[in-house]
Design a protein that fits this description.
Blueprint: E1 2-3, E2 9-10, E3 19-20, E4 36-44, E5 47-51, E6 57-61, H1 65-74, E7 79-84, E8 95-97, E9 100-105, H2 109-128, H3 139-159, E10 160-169, H4 176-183, E11 188-192, H5 200-203, H6 209-216, E12 221-224, H7 227-240, E13 244-246, E14 249-251, E15 257-262, H8 269-277, H9 279-291, E16 297-304, H10 311-324, E17 332-339, H11 346-366, E18 374-377, H12 383-392, E19 395-398, H13 407-415, E20 421-425, H14 430-433, E21 438-440, H15 445-457, H16 460-476, H17 479-492
Parallel strand pairs: 4-7, 4-10, 7-9, 10-11, 11-12, 12-15, 16-17, 16-19, 17-18, 19-20, 20-21
Antiparallel strand pairs: 1-2, 3-6, 5-6, 8-9, 13-14, 14-15
The structure holds adenosine-5'-diphosphate-glucose (ADQ).
Protein name: Trehalose-6-phosphate synthase
GO molecular function: alpha,alpha-trehalose-phosphate synthase (UDP-forming) activity; trehalose-phosphatase activity
InterPro entries: Glyco_trans_20
Amino acid sequence: MLATHDGFSQPVLSRASLRVRVDVRGDPQVPAQRTFDLVIAANRLPVDAVTGADGKITWRRSPGGLVTAMESVMHGREGAWVGWAGEPGKAPRAFTQNSMHLRPVRLDQDDVVDYYEGQSNDCLWPIYHDAIVPAKFRRRWRTAYERVNTRFAEQVAKVAAPGATVWVHDYQLQLVPALLRKLRSDVRIGWFNHIPFPPVELFMQMPGREGILEGLLGADFLGFQRKPDAANFLRACRGLLDVTVRGDVVHLPDGRSVRASAVPISVDYNGLRELAGDPAVQQRAAEIREQLGDPKHILLGVDRLDYTKGLRHRLKAYGELLQSGDLDPSETVFVQVATPSRERLAAYRELRGQVELEVGRINGEHSPIGSTALTYLHRSFPRTEMVALFAAADVLIVTPLRDGMNLVAKEYVACHADDGAIVLSEFTGAADELSRAYLCNPHDIDKLKQTILQAMHDPPGEHRRRMRSMRRTVMTNDVQHWAEDFLTNLQAAPHKPKGHR
Ligand code: ADQ
């Protein structure tokens, strides 16, 4: 099992072409002083280390959406990626994979605990997700966050060619834009937030909040998932800093200006469609149906096991539908894939306990002998298996309490022709674009139950109309479009190197 850029486990891709064997000491063909016109900085590198039986390290491409998106950006051009390799301690030397130059950043055990688990995932993550669980504030974590962000900025400064384009990703690296600008005012800096940006009332709770805004304003362009996220950022700047905000542009006292706008991320539509159309995958989808007892309805949930994803609300609704007899467990099966995530944090361990207790209760009370009302899979799967699951499912249930985008909903759309349906929380970024999904408020359990039943029982014609409309949206706005859109915005941003006022 592997860890993605977000740190959760992912399976190894089966495509042999994506596997390269690299000595952990690095590729001597990449001189440390070599520089690049395009540099990506993200918490994690796009590869995961796997130790073989012989003790040798093999690097394999992480299967996440970010990696796919960046591959399309990097196509035909050389670039560097700066990020953590996933293990605490000494960083491996720089190496090349699929013409991408990878520059590992060192994270010591203290950094993992304080910068990654602490400040990033126990402070910023809850604040940026409506404080679904209370955020924790520790001065030690903030110090570590500054320390690690400085290390990232220094690495990027070393590897960026004169006038390079630098694309910084996500909430773990919000100080990098300003730190990098101090070191290299010649480079063009963009930052993209994969998660929501909180309302100013919540953001204000955070000690060091001005520092985060100032850190981000070191960029030339800031991309967010939704318009309300960009608006929240602009409102925070207006309220907390001595700047002028006009429209979507922040004007700084030094004469620079920074634009903040929505550039919603998407999925590799063509790649997923091709995979879903593969006869082996279709065969596997039919097998899954059969293994589940050939039920009339297959409901599916696919989420990282995170308190933002609304798993408990979904299980409650499903349990009540079984209890009331609205759903018959001999006709309906619910498959919940819950990817292991951040298990060192108490809130995540607690959630896992609650979810597994509920799964046991539902199955204990409702499963017929020889089958289960709820199939719970707490592990990662290869991409092909995920696509087969999407293809097999009649209704996808996506109920986050807050989610930056939710790629799962878009993946399901790409994997289906005209059949299928999605129950989708209004609190996901995806709901803005997939307005023909069966939208729901996951906090309202009664309405959620009604929406699930409606999605299951609407006639095929209604499903077809809705799926067609959503498919057009995802096909037009795929991940390649997202990456191009972001870079076009970044290139168009006014850029003033030091001394050019
Ligand atoms: P995540 O919170 O991780 O991402 P999401 O957008 O749903 O959430 O992406 C999860 C990805 O992992 C999907 O591609 C899914 O297919 C895959 N996946 C999930 N479980 C899996 C399993 N068991 N095995 C294999 N693959 C699995 C963050 C933000 C989101 C935002 C994305 C991208 O929280 O809001 O959409 O970044 O910007």
